[in-house]
TrEMBL record:
Protein's name according to its UniProt entry: Glycosyltransferase 2-like domain-containing protein
InterPro entries per record: Glyco_trans_2-like, Glycosyltransf_2, Nucleotide-diphossugar_trans
Domain Glycosyltransferase 2-like: 12-121, 154-257
Record organism: Kitasatospora putterlickiae
Length: 294
């Protein structure tokens, strides 16, 4: 605790988990090694897994007494987050993912930020858990910071963020209609528009795992792109800028120029296919939500 900071009650960590048998033990082990000295709990929401996630979590409950498991009746990351927040007893709620690894000071870093701000996001370290293919498709930023993809309001990734539970309650939770992208962005934009300050916690580090094969990378990029027109539909009146047609045309032209990469090395092919999928997702999303955001 920093000097003069107000005391904090219980802190809750919420983890959505769907088919996470291969990775969640590493995340739980990382959480067991946190340096934060005060009371906190972990709530894993088993989100409709078809692998051995549920059985693995039962075994971990015997090793980690502060771990609770909630069962979601249907998949959806925001559905899982809402269920976890509903069960959370903490004053602060922190979110991370089942396939990442929280650095030892993660809980302490977010809690320090939340002592003075109602919402916060931490830093994503992208190299430790990812190979050349994943890094080519989603290159790391030069310096850690909150995300600012749309030239509107900053936002943290749902894999590394936190908020006062009272904020979640007053906002009515996460919007469960967002699936495959925009799910965390929408919540933190809505929070800021409601007057809640968002802080960046540079010492709250999560080692972030990207999709590891081309098909999964493309599927995720398409989902992200499809969500962008929906965000524009919901936030244009609040000031989210449009996507100029000249910019979209330039992006498609650059993709055309790089078409030979489809026959090149695997990492370059994955990077090109990810951008193609993102743009295709925007076209699909624009038609679906009747908002042109290309």
């Amino acid at each position: 605790m920093t000097g003069g900071a107000r005391p904090v009650g219980l802190v809750s960590v919420v983890i959505p988990a769907r088919n996470a048998e291969a990775t969640i033990a590493t995340q739980l082990e990382a959480l067991r090694g946190q340096t934060y000295p005060d009371p906190w709990e972990v709530i894993v929401v088993e989100n409709g897994s078809s692998d051995g996630t549920r059985a693995l979590l039962r075994s971990w409950q015997r090793r980690m007494p502060r771990l609770r498991v909630a069962l979601s009746g249907a998949p959806g990351v925001n559905r899982a987050r809402n269920l976890g927040c509903h069960h959370a007893d903490g004053e602060f709620v922190l979110l991370c993912d089942a396939d990442d690894v929280a650095a030892p000071g993660w809980v302490a870093g977010l809690v320090d930020a939340l002592r003075t701000s109602p919402a916060a996001g931490g830093a994503l370290e992208r190299r430790l858990l990812n190979g050349p293919l994943a890094l080519a498709a989603r290159p790391p930023k030069k310096a850690p910071a909150l995300l600012d993809t749309f030239g509107f309001l900053p936002y943290p990734a749902g894999a590394n963020c936190g908020f006062h539970k009272a904020v979640w309650t007053r906002l009515g939770g996460f919007d469960e209609s967002y699936r495959g992208g925009g799910d965390d962005t929408e919540f933190f934009w809505r929070a800021q528009l409601a007057g809640y300050r968002l802080a960046f916690a540079p010492h709250a580090v999560v080692h972030y795992r990207h999709r590891g094969d081309t098909r999964a990378i493309v599927r995720q990029a398409y989902g992200y792109g499809r969500s962008h027109p929906k965000l524009y539909r919901d936030f244009a009146r609040a000031g989210m800028p449009s996507s100029p047609l000249t910019g979209a045309a330039g992006a498609w032209w650059r993709l055309l120029l790089h078409a030979p990469d489809l026959l090149g090395p695997t990492d370059r092919r994955a990077a090109l296919l990810a951008q193609l999928a993102l743009r295709a997702g925007r076209v699909t999303g624009s038609a679906r939500h009747r908002r042109c955001y290309l």
